[in-house]
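Journal club prep — side note

Before the paper discussion, L.F. wants everyone to see what a predicted structure for a comparable chain looks like in token form. Sequence:
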Amino acid sequence: MDGNNRANIRQGAHVFIVQKQDQRTEKLTKGVVKDILTNSPTHPHGIKVRLESGIVGRVKQILS
């Protein structure tokens, strides 16, 4: 599943995100969703989330 639809993302979900500084390289960071920061139902670059580790980025792939 991709991370462009807010309805697909839940707190506690395991995801791959791309951080702002990694957008050009598309380097992915794995983590567990703590907070969903994007309010709109969709976003073309991915829904912005905060991971339990405190890292903020846009969801590229949802694992579970």
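L.F.'s comment for the group: The beta strands are 14-18, 28-36, 48-51, 56-62. Keep this in mind when we get to the figures.
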